[in-house]
Amino acid sequence: MRLAGKTALITGGTSGIGLAAARTFVREGARVALCARDGKKAQALAAELGPGSVGVHMDVSDLDSIAAGAVLASEALGGIDIVFANAGITVFKPFADWTGEDFDKLFAVNTKGQFFTVQKAAPFMRDCGVVILTGSIAAKTGQPNMALYAASKAPALALAKAISADLLSRRIRVFCLSPGPTKTAVFTSEGPFANGAEKALATVQARVPIGRAADPSEQAEVALFLASDASSFMLGTEIVVDGGKSQL
Ligand code: NAD
């Protein structure tokens, strides 16, 4: 029970890596606030997680919604120990096709949304808490069709360092978790590959030294490590969980 008695606010909590983290955190004794644009879905999934966890409406592209969601989550949980700012959108396009709208949309969620999730939740955090920002190895490996997605994910590491400094006096430690290819909605027909999701997964998996994409639970186990006392002498740093894709 590595998170016994702890509470966690998780954005993007109703699917993929966020939901896997919620299940892992609850397994280890935490109560969580699943934050999502679909508040009803968040409530239903939180009820499945067990007593003490809650679902909260939060659209991270809207600062008022983030602020309101942080208040609700904190009230329901009785304070917050862990913030997992994980909500994100993935868009891939050929270089010449990107529009100003794409730019604004990606940065509104992946960068602005992430920063303000932490800023609005921080007043409700207990000292010695942990913040995890989801980055991406797309920010460190030059790959075609990913320019604006990669750019919108690069700030996660800079924010982890700068916010660690801002929150140092409260001993809140901030991390960037940078996943490589992970089998979530990104690799379904809902994701950026649309009709070619299966082919895209096979192509991507062939480029991962370990030979496969991650299961979301493998990202969640690393988030658990960061959120727990096991990472007590770490802060302001990045952990890459990519099967070696950005390393070999
Ligand atoms: P996912 O689509 O299951 O999760 C993304 C979540 O963010 C969804 O629940 C979605 O509803 C939520 N979201 C999007 N816009 C939102 C908004 N405005 N307000 C609130 N919530 C919003 O996919 P995932 O793979 O679990 O993604 C989680 C994080 O991991 C994202 O930040 C993504 O960029 C990152 N990531 C994923 C991969 C991968 O291969 N799956 C690789 C690197 C990084």
Automatic annotation (TrEMBL):
Domain Ketoreductase residue range list: 6-171
GO MF annotation: an example: oxidoreductase activity, acting on NAD(P)H, oxygen as acceptor
Pfam family, one: adh_short_C2
Record field: transmembrane: none
InterPro entries per the UniProt record, alphabetical: KR_dom, NAD(P)-bd_dom_sf, SDR_fam
Keywords in alphabetical order: Oxidoreductase
Keyword Oxidoreductase: yes
Keyword Oxidoreductase among UniProt keywords: yes
Similarity section: Belongs to the short-chain dehydrogenases/reductases (SDR) family.
PANTHER family recorded: BENZIL REDUCTASE, CHAIN DEHYDROGENASE, PUTATIVE (AFU_ORTHOLOGUE AFUA_4G08710)-RELATED
Name this protein carries in UniProt: SDR family oxidoreductase
Organism of provenance: Mesorhizobium ciceri
